[in-house]
UniProtKB/TrEMBL annotation:
<feature type="transmembrane region" description="Helical">
    <location>
        <begin position="301"/>
        <end position="321"/>
    </location>
</feature>
<dbReference type="InterPro" id="IPR011701">
    <property type="entry name" value="MFS"/>
</dbReference>
<keyword id="KW-0534">Nitrate assimilation</keyword>
<keyword id="KW-1133">Transmembrane helix</keyword>
<feature type="transmembrane region" description="Helical">
    <location>
        <begin position="12"/>
        <end position="32"/>
    </location>
</feature>
<dbReference type="Pfam" id="PF07690">
    <property type="entry name" value="MFS_1"/>
</dbReference>
<feature type="transmembrane region" description="Helical">
    <location>
        <begin position="248"/>
        <end position="266"/>
    </location>
</feature>
<feature type="transmembrane region" description="Helical">
    <location>
        <begin position="169"/>
        <end position="188"/>
    </location>
</feature>
<feature type="transmembrane region" description="Helical">
    <location>
        <begin position="365"/>
        <end position="386"/>
    </location>
</feature>
<dbReference type="GO" id="GO:0015112">
    <property type="term" value="F:nitrate transmembrane transporter activity"/>
</dbReference>
<feature type="transmembrane region" description="Helical">
    <location>
        <begin position="333"/>
        <end position="353"/>
    </location>
</feature>
<feature type="transmembrane region" description="Helical">
    <location>
        <begin position="139"/>
        <end position="163"/>
    </location>
</feature>
<keyword id="KW-0472">Membrane</keyword>
<dbReference type="GO" id="GO:0042128">
    <property type="term" value="P:nitrate assimilation"/>
</dbReference>
<feature type="transmembrane region" description="Helical">
    <location>
        <begin position="213"/>
        <end position="236"/>
    </location>
</feature>
<dbReference type="InterPro" id="IPR044772">
    <property type="entry name" value="NO3_transporter"/>
</dbReference>
<feature type="transmembrane region" description="Helical">
    <location>
        <begin position="278"/>
        <end position="295"/>
    </location>
</feature>
Amino acid sequence: MDKNAFLKAGHPPTLLAAFLYFDLAFMVWVILGPLGVQIAADLGLDHAQKGLMVAIPVLAGAILRIFMGVLVDHLKPKMAGAIGQVIVIAALFVAWQFGIHSFEQTLLLGVFLGVAGASFAVALPLASRWYPPEHQGTALGIAGAGNSGTAIAALVAPGLAIAYGWTNVFGLALVPLVVVFAFYLAVAKDAPECPPAKPLAEYFKVLKDKDAWWFMFFYAVTFGGFVGLASSLTIYFNTQYGLDAKMAGYFTAACVFAGSMVRPIGGAVADRIGGIKSLSVMYVLAALFLGIVSVGLPTAWMALVVFVAAMLALGMGNGAVFQLVPQRFRREIGVMTGLVGMAGGVGGFYLASSLGYAKQATGSYQSGFLIFAALALAALVGLTAVKTRWRTTWGAAHLTSAKI
C-alpha cells in the first residue's frame, strides 16, 4: 500500500481522534473484567455471577450499538460520539463517588458501561466516511485498533485496584477520558460525504437483506470471541491457574494486545488479498486454538501462548469483516456498523457468560470454549456458501476497486 496515498486520501486528525475515543471507551467498557477478582472477593460472587458481571457490559454495548448507529446517521458521528462520552464519564463519576456495594449495582454500572461499548458504532463511521473503497480495510483497521483499550484495562486496572482500591480505579479512569474527550471535540470532523438522515423505519429495511445477517453472524464470531475473552481471561487465569489478580491481568493484557494490534494488519491484508480469503483462514485458526485451550492446558504459560494465537486470528478476522462491510453497505454504513457491532457484542456476551455458567455447572470451562470453536467452523461454512455470489454481484471487479 502507498502510505502517502493513504494519508492524502482521508483526514488523519479525525482518524486519530476516532482511534483514541474508541481506545479509551473500550478500556472502560471491559473494566469490570480486570477488576473482577477483587470485586468478586469483596462481594462474595460465585462463578456464574462473575461470568454475568463481566458479560452485562458486553450485552448492553451490543444493544446500544443499534441506537448509536441510528444517532450517527441522524446527528452525524461527531455529535453522537460526544453524547456517548458524556454519559460514560458521568456514570464512572457516580460509581467512584458513591461506590458499588452489591452484585445488582455491578450489573447497573455494567449497563452504563455498555454506552462505551457502543462507541464502535461511532468511531468506525467517523473514520470510514473520509476514505475511498480501496483504503477502507486500512482506515477501519486503524480506527478499530482502539480494541487495544481492553489491553490497557487488563494491564493497569488490577494493579491500581491493589494500590488504591477498585472503586478508585473508576475515578482514575476519568483523567484520560476527559483529556481525550477534549481532543476529540477539538480535532474530529464529520466527512463531507454524510448521507442525509432518513426515517427510522428506513434503517431497519437493511435487515431484509440476507447479506446483513451474514455479516452479523461473521462478526458475532470474530469480535464476540475477542471481547468475550478480553472480559473473561483475568478471572479465567485466576480461577484455572491460581494467578493473583495482577499477574492474571498481565496475562490477559498480552492476549488482548495481540488481538487489538493485528486488527489494522487484518484490514490491510484483506485489502491486499480480499476479505473472504483472509477471513476463511482466520476462522480455521480460531477454531483450532479454542479447541486446544478447551482441554485445560497444564500450565498458565502454555494457555497464554494458545490464547495469544487465538486472539491474533480473531483480531485479524475483525479487520477482514470490516474490509467487506463498507463495500456492500457503503450508504448504510452507520446503521450497518451498529447492527454488525451489536451482533459482535451478543457473541461476546454469550462467550463470557457461558464460560462462567460452564464452570459453575460442570466444574470446567471446556464446553464453553468448544461450542464457540464450533461456531467459528459454522461461520467458515457460511462464508464458503456466499463467497461466489458476493464475488459475482456487489464484489465484482467492474463494480469496485477493492478486492473481495
